[in-house]
Amino acid sequence: MLLHEHQISHIPRMAIPDIINITCRIIQPPVAIIILGYCVYLITELYLPPPAIQFLLFTSTWTIFPALPLTIFKYRLLPPYTWSKIGFLLVEVATLMFWFAGFVGLLVWRKGFDYCIGKACGYIIAAIAFAALEWISFCVTTIIHALEVWETRHNRSGFTTSEPETTTI
């Protein structure tokens, strides 16, 4: 079904970032669980696992705890006060930095090898790829969350006072 021009012009401007945000929030916990599985396998399989794998194990466990509350509480249970938005933004920025440090650390460790043989090599590459995907999804949600905090910075209730703007295409 194609949308006509008059139908597109009535889409609220904030609907698209909310759709992107919710999509990323749905993706984050399963990807973290996949990385958790890869890290557990690599820790048991490698004789001396690098600290980056252990850090990704921590980060994937950490992600499950803030990703679910940020999805559930942000839209349903918590009042939209500025302090709670800033607190959630700080947790999200910390998680963003954890993912960046984890996948870059594992990538640097992996680059130290001239060759990579066996099943563990594939798991290392997959863990790097999924961790980069998780970092990108947290970049997107952090930017959306920061813009939301910025838009409501002068309003103590957390709600914007103007009517939602529409985009005309």
What is the compact description of this entry?
With 169 residues, the protein is mainly alpha-helical. It has one domain (14-151).
In words, what does this structure look like?
The protein is mainly α and 169 residues long. The chain has one domain. 74% of the residues lie in helices and 0% in strands. The protein has five helices and no strands. The two termini are 17 Å apart. 22% of the residues are buried. About 3% of the residues have low confidence.
Shape: elongated
Task: Note the main sheet.
Answer: none
Structural class: mainly alpha
Please work out how many helical segments DSSP would assign.
5
Measured by DSSP, the beta-strand proportion falls in under 5%
The arrangement of helices and strands along the chain is: HHHHH
Low-confidence region ranges: 158-162
- The chain-level mean pLDDT equals 79
Structural Rg: 20 Å
The termini sit apart by 17 Å
Fraction of residues in helix: over 70%
- The number of distinct β-strands equals 0
Number of domains: 1
Topology:
Layout lengths: L4 H4 L6 H31 L5 H27 L4 H30 L7 H33 L18
Helix pairs in contact: 2-3, 2-5, 3-4, 4-5
Main attributes?
mainly alpha, 169 residues
